[in-house]
Design goal:
The strands form four sheets. This protein has a five-stranded parallel beta sheet with strand order 2-5-8-1-9. It has a two-stranded antiparallel ribbon with strand order 3-4. A two-stranded antiparallel sheet has the order 6-7. With 314 residues, it is α/β, with parallel strands linked by helices. The chain is elongated, with a radius of gyration of 23 Å. The N terminus is likely disordered. Helix 1 runs antiparallel to helix 2, helix 9 crosses helix 11 and helix 11 crosses helix 12. The protein has two domains: 179 residues, 3-Layer(aba) Sandwich (Rossmann fold); 114 residues, Helicase, Ruva Protein, domain 3 (Orthogonal Bundle). Bound molecules: adenosine-5'-triphosphate (ATP) and magnesium ion. Adenosine-5'-triphosphate (ATP) binds next to helix 3, helix 9 and helix 11.
Length: 314
């Protein structure tokens, strides 16, 4: 006797997994190791939790993998309102009144949609979902099928996977995963990449490459990274802040007639761009008696006044 879980067919993922890895890696900046680990897990037919702070390539990697496999990626946000019914689906009440229940009146939720299409169901902030929702999901993962009232048994296509994400710094409104949940998941930890990789991401996503950007990109990455280690900051900005900072600085420089990286007005222009791109993205420690702007000013002074050598390109 084998359970449906043991019969799982993973052959769709087996041939050419190495060639797929190379094609996917070509679309990412860095992340070779995490991509390899994630591919190994999903190609093995396994479900997965990706644990890491915001902006650390979790969605980017999953998008690249599902596009390579030619399957859908369905997003669900884990929060207290994510009931089992929202995940599985519901019967359209108006149609039920007119026609009575049938498989036709069923409106699939993301879980059933992903199972039928053989897609990845990506549940962000997994640990915020209520326990009964997690249990529904665990059953679907174990059985590769769910029983839908008045529809019957929905069986997952072979490439169906559940991928969860969690932010380790986030402990407001979250529950720790119980051991019964964590024991059923594989786990990959992703952290911030190094400065060089983040500069590569900013260059790629901003599309900027002029002389100003050749200074602004490393500046943007350096001050963004500094928000993550500042003593008064609980959670600093992700690379998204650095991308926006480079773009805002580019426009602000044009508006103010800052002609290039050596213009004397560049540093002050850059500080103003920092307040726009970063002040809303940093979470201060509860005990810190300061403001995001003061924290940013300190970071700016470290980069532009106290240690200007580090700010010079080359
Ligand atoms: N390795 C990478 N290569 C290219 N771009 C990247 C990479 N990592 C992140 N990015 C870019 O940075 C931004 C954030 O990345 P992404 O959405 O993958 O983060 P995430 O880990 O899913 O964050 P969150 O937990 O907030 O959902 C996106 O604009 C993405 O394009
Ligand atoms: Mg994401």
């Amino acid at each position: 006797m084998t359970s449906p879980g043991q019969q799982r067919d993973t052959s769709a993922a087996q041939p050419g997994v190495e060639a797929a890895r190379q094609r996917i890696a070509a679309r990412l900046v860095g992340r070779g190791r995490e991509l390899e680990l994630a591919l190994a897990a999903v190609a093995a037919g396994r479900d997965l939790v990706l644990e890491g702070p915001p902006g650390t390539s979790k969605t980017t990697m999953l998008k690249a993998i599902t596009e390579e496999w030619g399957i859908p990626l369905l997003f669900v946000e884990g929060n207290a309102d994510l009931t089992p019914a929202k995940l599985v689906g519901h019967h359209n009440p108006a149609r039920v009144l007119r026609e009575d229940y049938s498989a036709d009146t069923f409106v699939p939720g993301p879980l059933v949609a992903a199972m039928r299409a053989g897609g990845f169901l990506y549940i962000e902030e997994f640990n915020r979902a209520p326990e009964d929702t997690l249990n529904t999901l665990l059953t679907a993962m174990a059985d590769r099928a769910v029983e839908v009232p008045r529809v019957g048994l929905v069986t997952a296509e072979p490439s169906f996977r559940v991928i969860a994400s969690m932010n380790p710094y986030d402990n407001v409104g979250t529950t720790r995963l119980s051991t019964s949940v964590s024991d059923r998941l594989n786990r990959i930890v992703v952290d911030y990449q190094d400065a060089t990789a983040e500069e590569g991401i900013v260059a790629l996503r901003s599309g900027l490459g002029d002389a100003l950007a050749r200074r602004a990109t490393p500046d943007a990455v350096a001050v963004t990274r500094a928000t993550r280690t500042h003593p008064d900051v609980r959670q600093g900005s992700s690379v998204r802040g650095a991308i926006d900072l480079a773009l805002v600085a580019h426009q602000l420089a044009a508006l103010r007639g800052v002609t290039g990286p050596d213009d004397a007005r560049y540093p002050e222009m850059f500080y103003d761009a920092m307040t726009v791109a970063l002040s809303g993205r940093i979470r201060l420690d509860d005990a810190a008696e300061t403001t995001p702007e003061r924290v940013l000013r300190q970071i700016w002074e470290d980069r532009f006044i106290l240690n200007p050598a580090a700010a010079q390109p080359g």
